[in-house]
Design a protein that fits this description.
The complex is a heterodimer. Chain A is of the alpha/beta class. Helices cover 25% and strands 25% of the residues of chain A. Chain A has five domains: 128 residues, Urease, subunit C, domain 1 (Roll), CATH 2.30.40.10; 310 residues, Metal-dependent hydrolases (TIM Barrel), CATH 3.20.20; 98 residues, Lipocalin, CATH 2.40.128.520; 120 residues, Urease, subunit C, domain 1; 212 residues, Alpha-Beta Barrel (TIM Barrel), CATH 3.20.20.140. Chain B has a domain of 288 residues: TIM Barrel, CATH 3.20.20. Classes of the chains: A alpha/beta, B alpha/beta.
């Protein structure tokens, strides 16, 4: 065998030449051909060929950029340049699946202002999409320019390949995978057509639509549907559009194969992740990974059930500022908890079996990558899973698992060489990318660190060496000297490969005025050499003993991984330790407000079985095993129902851009962590219709929820509630109070509102007719034409016409109320509920004739022109006319005392007390068409009820317990315990932060969830550009 | 529910002018002075300062309370009004709102609540008071006789005025002028606005700058005061001139502040200049109630219906603040800092009973305590001989929806018309029902 040991210098030179060795493949040769060989043998190394597979003393052969062999018995062939890697560990090169490497990042948009003029249309070119947040057609590989500096920074972390696209927009375009080596882009591209990158944020798009999260979701839904349609429709004629040929659309064209190409969806937190998962599931997009957030541990079960692979950033949050007592006023328990638990997120996912890759994304300084990853390991992530997250998993997610991610024959020669265990305290010394070496530190065949018994001049001396070979330091002590023995520093330490030299001044050690000079060689852990003592030479040899790690250092590097924080549902103050459970219960001797014809029943018993009211009567026997509540002195009412609420809505209550946005769905943006749900329960509220705002004549689809505190978004939705939708009339929709920039959108007047709604229904009817006509075509005829394009905006209106979706319309003045009734009668749809309806008392007759119900404020008025005629006896007058009336809140604060709001009709106009209570129970239940299920105390109905300490309409009443479907979600006594516990927990966590000192300050400053604003009807603007929001703290509803 | 300063700035920017919105005067005539003595009999009298007197009478002479007791004898020529079983309270007092200054919040031309510049100590709320506001009669109807209105803004906002609610014009309505100098304290939390999020360090810096600015204003005003004492001023600076009364202790300082840190800063400033301090807002006042009591700082608490200020606070935190202030011995009044919803203040006081106050304590918070804070406790706020005959009759407990029914209201012995726009519209459209 003839092999040649390479010097470091020559190894480095080789890489330089190798870089250009194939430059002439498709590029004309300039100068002299480069035929430098790329044949390397790395010998004696510890090799992780893939996660969980470790070889000791193995050899890896590289031939022309690929691995040709790996194993413990691989011989180094002749002609190979051998590198002694016996002191090192080799890992497959790492892959970062979520980067913008080699792509120019989008220029950050100038912060917007609510004064900016809206932008309704984008520039049309090249068959692009009609929305600027969609650039699905962008193949980012065509923009790829290798970036030496960025590549080097990533290589220093061990990354040898990256998947990249620009992080901008909703459909961001197709990513590509490239090597992080040197060379032409043509050589470096590993996969040109990678997954489509996606996100909810519209990024730098100036277009107003979508201005909300629900708008983004609707846009994604429409686009994915259109893409499916387009792949069947292009080349045919469009039955919906005058039988014209289906127009070209490059964005839709490029999404035709999205499930084959895959997608990577960036999410902001656990809620956002589950939302993205459900959305992609609607289109069976299984081949999509999610960029995570660090919050996955909060909803681990659901995330595991999603079956999605994740790409995890490691931007652990900096601790909340608690150093100054005054600052602690601004610190939330939820943030303190997340600070403590974020480093354990990866371990939790691993334990749950959720596959994930890691990314440098979101790290402000990529130098934090390894410290953070090691922290995750200290918090329980296994090194094997961590390695998989850097190699095989991202290789799979990037579609390059056949060539990257393992050290195996045929795989690209992408390697990481490290001294020691990278996942503990090892250091990266060099990487190979496509067989090219990139050195970070010197590769030395030996490391001299250790203790050696080297007697000199007849004295037993222990020599200790520390540090890497090129930065050795050392000392010597007399072995006979005991604990007091003086330590003498070694001088002139020099090593070259296995050879070692140093000087020792004996004067300070033995009193001999002599310098002893050592020279020797370390082989197989034995140092053999000689002391030169003047003219004398002493031969010595010693076995290396490993230095004991100082206990202090070992302790310092271990963080305190014992968790002080609770993990609750939801994971914030007042969250529950476990999901609330249904109880069978017997409430004895209580005053029951039935909201049924039975009225108010005193000294009555109520039995709740399996979530339903089972029996209501006097002196009932307690069934075996039932819990008993003594209701003496208390009042039991149905749970309060709010027809008009905006709590628990995330990232925008209005898609207030286009005049018609019936495609957006509140159901898509339920926020189960909103504390206002809990606060509502404390006011006896169990059920609410979450409505879109009032920024446009036809707003978004509503969602009825029950306040099942602790459940996820899906768990809050009330399945029994039929679909509904928000319409709006008057000042808000004609943009009266939006500022001077908002004077263009049709309609700007009440007369225009009528035509806008009319035209939308004309379109819906025609749409429905075209779909029906297509359905009647024979199979053969269908082959001639394109299938009709599904239009979600019109679908919702067709559902209204089909009496499958019910209208709740924001309305104030008499003229607009009459107008909408007239229009509804003409177009063949019904108004289920006029909401707000402050002039309903003027039009009660017409409302009654139409069959519309009314949901009004108890006493609001004077906050804008159109409420100048509002009166607090509105509810009474409408009720007198026979209109079904409810009282709503439209406000998180008011939602907590709807019983008091109902009482105002007793006070202002003498309404019967039981009738008044019905205005916040059975009446709104009828308006939401859930009255068969809830809204009254009746055997067989869902047991949604409140126990009050006194008369429920009294200002002195307080909810004591609030139950939904036989499950207790609020108890005034438990509440006090929760508060005490959370204060103790908070104190402990603040102490932990203080004890952690400076290390607590390191990390990301924007990695916490922010609570939603208290939404109101008219809050509108651009959620993705938060500075451009018009928000009222007053009552401009 | 008025509206923090940020939102007001939005209104200023957004509300278009609407010239047709000029409100017409309503047709309710202010009550006439009584021709002779008036004896009210058979009432449960909530005197505020002398307990509750069952089955008692009140004698009104020349607009003042002349006697309170059982079986009073009607003087010659007196009118006797039997109100058997009803409840008599002092006319309620609403503090710190914008009644009469705003007619329609969204219509700029009807809003005189907020002037520009940060140095307006010379602004007097009374001159913007529209005695013919349609809103005022709806407030009276629920038992309110007085309102202390203040000019909104930022930093030095201006002087509040105490108005009685049944008048021909603002001069007629004025009970006490310059009841306090109102200051909106700069932000002291590290959180930026949810609508304009900024890193904590930037917010801290901006806070410090704003606070320094406010302190400079006080330094300038104090320099003027000192020079004035020495006769060295070169002329009248109308801004600082109006602060002379603040430095000589005649005019209290009303600082609008909710956050504990703001309140502490305000207390430091008041101590430095030896000013009489009242906190308006006071969401966090419960956190330092003992200190407020010790420093004799009063609180006009404006969040009796409030949501918790912070995510970790209890759902009922804002409801229980009155009880905490009461227990600590703080002088406090309740307020709803708005205009049209001032009529609900009486029920907010009722809810405070549910969260710990006694009914007597709750009544004080909208009568005598408020009168003390407005500096007129010698004239109004209780049913005592010699005080103004501003009285309200309710069929039952005035604080509860189930028994609140205001049948009579007198201000200075003049009977007030309890009609209002809402009742008029009700009666009109009642004709159309069925």
């Amino acid at each position: 065998m003839t092999s040649e040991r390479l010097s470091l210098l020559s190894a480095a030179l080789l890489t330089v030449f190798a870089a250009s060795s194939h430059a002439d493949q498709t590029s004309p040769l300039q100068g002299i051909q480069d035929k430098t060989p790329n044949l390397i043998a790395l010998t004696g190394a510890t090799v992780y060929t893939e996660p969980g597979k470790k070889l000791e003393k193995a050899t890896v052969l590289i031939a022309d950029g690929r691995i040709s062999a790996v194993g413990t018995s691989v011989k180094v062939p002749a002609g190979y340049q051998q590198i002694d890697a016996s002191r090192y560990t080799l890992y497959p090169g790492f892959i970062d699946p979520y980067t913008q490497y080699g792509i120019e990042a989008a220029k950050p948009a100038k912060p917007g202002s609510y004064r900016d003029a809206p932008v309704y249309k984008n520039e049309r070119k090249g068959g692009n999409a009609s929305n600027d947040a969609i650039h699905a057609q962008q193949r980012w590989v065509s923009e790829f320019k290798p970036d030496a500096k960025a590549a080097e920074a990533l290589r220093k972390l061990g990354f040898t390949a990256a998947q990249s696209a620009r992080f901008d927009g909703i459909f961001r375009g197709q990513a590509f995978v490239s090597s992080l080596g040197e060379g032409l882009p043509n050589q470096l591209v590993l996969k040109a057509d990678g997954p489509q990158f996606m996100a909810f944020s519209k990024g730098t798009s100036k277009q107003s639509y979508p201005s909300s999260l629900m708008g983004s979701i609707a846009l994604i839904r429409q686009t994915l549907s259109d893409a499916n349609w387009y792949s069947q429709a292009y080349g045919k004629t469009d039955v919906r559009y005058f039988n014209q040929p289906v127009e070209f659309n490059v964005a839709l064209q490029s999404l035709a194969n999205i499930n084959q190409q895959g997608a990577v969806f960036e999410t902001g937190d656990d809620r956002s992740l589950l939302r993205a998962h459900l959305l992609l599931n609607e289109f069976k997009l299984n081949n999509a990974a999610m960029v995570g957030s660090g919050f996955e541990y909060v909803r681990l079960d659901e995330i595991k059930a999603s079956g999605r692979s994740l790409i995890l950033p490691l931007n652990f949050p900096a601790a909340p500022a608690v150093e100054q007592v005054a600052d602690q006023l601004d610190v939330n328990l939820a943030d303190l908890r997340h600070w403590e638990r974020a480093p354990a997120n990866a371990a939790a996912l691993a334990q749950a079996g959720v596959p994930f890759a890691l990314t440098t994304y979101k790290l402000k300084d990529t130098k934090d990558f390894w410290p953070n990853l090691r922290k995750a390991v200290q918090y329980g992530l296994s090194a094997d899973t961590a390695l998989a997250a850097l190699t095989t998993v991202p290789a799979r997610l990037s579609g390059v698992a056949d060539k990257l991610g393992k050290i195996a024959p045929g795989y690209q020669a992408d390697l990481v060489l490290a001294s020691g265990d990278l996942f503990a305290d090892g250091e990266i010394v060099a990487t190979w990318v496509r067989g090219q070496q990139h050195s970070i530190k010197a590769i030395t065949p030996v490391d001299f660190a250790g203790d050696y018994q080297l007697s000199v001049a007849g004295k037993a001396v222990k020599v200790s060496l520390t540090g890497p070979a090129d930065k050795l330091s050392g000392s010597a002590v007399l072995q006979a000297g005991g604990a007091e023995a003086k330590s003498v520093k070694l001088e002139h330490i020099h090593s070259q490969q296995q050879l070692l030299q140093f000087n020792l001044n004996l004067a300070e050690l033995t009193g001999d005025k002599q310098i002893a000079q050592f020279s020797g060689q370390l082989t197989d852990n034995r140092l053999t050499g000689k002391w030169q003592l003047g003219s004398n030479t002493e031969l010595v040899t010693a076995q290396r003993q490993t230095l004991a790690e100082s206990p202090a250092k070992a302790a310092a590097s271990k963080p305190d991984t014992v968790m002080l924080s609770k993990l609750t549902f939801p994971n914030r103050a007042y969250g529950l330790p476990a999901l609330a459970k249904q109880q069978n219960v017997h409430i004895k001797n209580v005053t029951v407000w039935t909201a049924e014809k039975e009225g108010i029943l005193e000294n009555t018993d109520v039995i709740v079985r399996d979530g339903k009211f089972d029996k209501i009567g006097k002196n009932l026997a307690t069934p075996r095993g039932f819990d008993v509540i003594d209701g003496t002195g208390m009042h039991l009412t149905p749970g309060i129902i709010d027809e008009h609420s905006h709590v628990a809505i995330e990232a925008g209550v209005n898609e207030g851009t286009d005049a018609v946005t019936s495609e957006v769905r509140i159901a898509d943006v339920i926020n189960p962590e909103d504390i206002n749900l809990y606060r509502g329960l404390a006011g006896g509220t169990t059920t609410a219709q979450l409505l879109h705002g009032s920024a446009n004549p036809i707003g978004g689809q509503a969602q009825v929820i029950q306040f099942r505190w602790g459940e996820n978004a899906e768990g809050l939705k009330m399945k029994a509630a039929p679909p509904s939708i928000k319409f709006a009339l008057g000042e808000n929709v004609k943009q009266s109070n939006w500022g001077d920039a908002f004077t263009e959108r049709y309609p700007q007047t009440r007369v225009g509102v009528e035509t806008a709604i009319r035209d939308a229904f004309v379109a819906a009817k025609e749409y429905k007719a075209k779909l029906a006509a297509y359905d009647k075509l024979s199979k053969r005829q269908r082959e001639q034409v394109a299938p009709p394009r599904i239009d979600y905006r019109l679908e919702a209106l067709v559902e209204i016409l089909d009496k499958q979706r019910f209208i709740h319309t924001h309305s104030y003045v008499a003229s607009e109320i009459l107008m909408l009734i007239e229009l509804a009668d003409e177009m063949g749809f019904n108004i289920t509920t006029f909401t707000h309806i402050l002039e309903g008392y003027k039009t009660a007759k017409e409302m009654q004739a139409h069959g519309a119900s009314a949901s009004t404020f108890a006493d609001w008025w004077a906050y804008k022109m159109e409420v100048q005629d509002a009166i607090p006896t509105n509810a009474c007058l409408m009720a007198e006319q026979g209109v079904n009336v409810s009282i709503n809140s439209d406000d998180a604060g008011l939602q907590r005392r709807l019983n008091q709001e109902a009482a105002k009709s007793v006070m202002y106009c003498g309404m019967d007390e039981h009738e008044a209570l019905k205005m916040v129970t059975i009446n709104p239940a009828m308006q939401l068409k859930i009255d068969k299920v809830t809204g009254s105390v009746k055997a067989g109905k869902q047991a949604d009820f409140v126990l009050w300490n006194t008369h429920p309409l009294s200002v002195y009443s307080q909810a004591q317990q609030t139950w939904i479907e036989g499950t207790k979600y609020f108890d005034i006594n438990t509440d006090k315990q929760l508060q005490q516990q959370l204060e103790a927990e908070k104190t402990a966590l603040i102490q932990k932060v203080l004890n952690a000192g400076d290390s607590a300050k390191a990390g990301s400053k924007d990695a916490y969830k922010q609570d939603e604003p208290e939404w109101h009807c008219e809050d509108q603007g651009d959620w993705w550009n938060i500075g451009s929001y018009i928000h009222s703290h007053g009552h401009k509803h | 529910m008025k509206l923090s300063k940020t939102c007001l700035s939005l209104f200023v920017a957004l509300a278009g002018s609407l010239s047709s919105a000029q409100m017409l005067a309503h047709d309710m005539v202010p009550g006439k002075a009584a021709e002779g003595p008036l004896l009210l009999t058979g009432l449960t009298i909530h005197t505020v300062t002398d307990g509750i007197k069952a089955d008692s009478d009140v004698l009104i002479v020349d607009g003042k309370i002349a006697a309170v007791g059982q079986n009073l004898t009607a003087p010659q020529g007196a009118t006797v009004l039997a109100l058997d079983g009803k409840h008599l309270y002092p006319g309620l007092i609403a503090l710190a709102n914008q009644l009469g200054l705003i007619e329609i919040e969204a219509v700029r031309s009807t809003d005189d609540s907020r002037e520009v510049t940060q140095t307006n100590p010379d602004i007097k709320a009374k001159v913007g008071y529209n005695a013919d506001s349609e809103v005022i009669p709806t407030i009276r109807s629920n038992g309110f006789a007085y309102s202390m209105i203040y000019p909104d803004g930022s930093m030095l906002m201006g002087q509040s005025s105490l108005m009685q609610l049944d008048a021909w014009n603002y001069q007629d309505a004025l009970v006490a002028d310059g009841t306090g100098l109102h200051v909106r304290w700069p932000n002291a939390s590290t959180l930026g606005s949810r609508w304009n999020p900024k890193p904590a360090d930037e917010v801290r810096k901006a806070n410090a700058e704003q606070l320094a600015k406010l302190q400079q204003y006080f330094q300038a005003a104090k320099a003027y005061y000192d020079a004035e004492q020495a006769g060295l001023n070169r002329g009248v600076d109308s801004r600082w001139h109006e602060m002379l009364a603040v430095f000589n202790g005649e005019r209290p300082l009303f600082v609008h502040a909710d956050d504990e840190r703001q309140i502490r800063q305000a207390m430091l400033l008041a101590k430095e200049y030896n000013l009489k301090l009242t906190i308006v807002g006071g969401r966090d006042s419960w956190r330092l109630a003992d200190e407020l009591a010790a420093a004799k700082v009063a609180v006009i608490y404006t969040a009796p219906y409030g949501l918790p200020s912070r995510a970790d606070e209890n759902y009922s935190q804002a409801f229980t603040v009155p009880k905490t202030l009461q227990d600590a011995g703080v002088n406090y009044a309740l307020s709803l800092d708005g205009y049209w919803d001032t009529r609900n203040l009486v029920f907010a006081a009722g809810q405070a009973i549910s969260f710990g106050l006694t009914p007597e304590q709750a009544l004080r918070s909208v009568t005598i305590n408020a009168a003390q804070i407005a500096g007129v406790a010698d004239k109004i706020g209780s049913i005592e001989v010699g005080k103004a005959a501003s009285l309200v009759v309710s069929e039952g407990d005035i604080f509860d929806y189930l028994s609140h029914k205001v049948t009579h209201l007198w201000i200075d012995g003049r009977e007030v018309d309890l009609n209002n726009r809402h009742k008029q519209l009700h009666n009109k459209y009642k004709q159309r029902i069925n």
